[in-house]
Request: fold
Amino acid sequence: MIGRITGTLLEKNPPQILVDANGVGYEVDVPMSTFYNLPATGERVSLHTHLAVREDGHFLYGFATDEERTAFRQLLKISGIGARMALAVLSGLSVSDLAQAIALQEAGRLVKIPGIGKKTAERLLLELRDKLGKALPNAGGIRLAAGVDAAPDAKSDILNALLALGYNEREALGAMKGLGEDIGVSDGIRAALKLLSKA
Reply:
C-alpha cells in the first residue's frame, strides 16, 4: 500500500495532479480542498495517499491531511459510495464541516454537493454518525460547531432542541455561549430561550 508520496508537482489538472517522485510520475486524484492548498508547479509536495486496486486499474488518491484521508476511507465503506463521490463530498465540505453536518444530522448541507441526492445524504448521515467521530478524534468529529464540544451530551441536546425550534445555527450558538459548562438540558434550553427572546 502506498501511504504517502513526496516529490515535485509537475501538473495540476483538477481533480488530478502529476507528482514526480524519484523519476516516476504518479497521477494522483485529490479533492478540491487539497487542490486549493497545493504549491505552484515545480515545487515540492507531500501528500497522504490511498491506493485503490480495481479490475480496471490502480488509482492513487492524495490528501493534504491525514484527517481528509481518514474521512475518505470512511466514506468508501458506505455501500454505493465510490471514490468519485467521496472526493466530491470532500471537495464540497471540509472535514470539520462534514463532521459538523453529521453531528447535527444536516442533510441539507450534503444535498448541495453535486451527485448527492436526499436519500444518499440521509444514508451518509446515518452510517457516519458513530464512525466519523471515533475515526477523527481531533478533526472536528467531536465538535458540533464552532466552540461547542459534543462531549457533554447536554450541549448537543440543547443545540439540537434550539435548531428544532426554528432558530438558525448562528443564533443557537450565540445563545449557548452564555450557558454554564455544567448546565442540564432543560435548564440550558430555558436559559438559551430567555437569551434569544432578549435579542
Q: What stands out?
A: The CA atoms of residues 78 and 123 lie 8 Å apart. The mean pLDDT is 84. The two ends are 55 Å apart (CA to CA). The chain is about 45% helix and 25% strand.
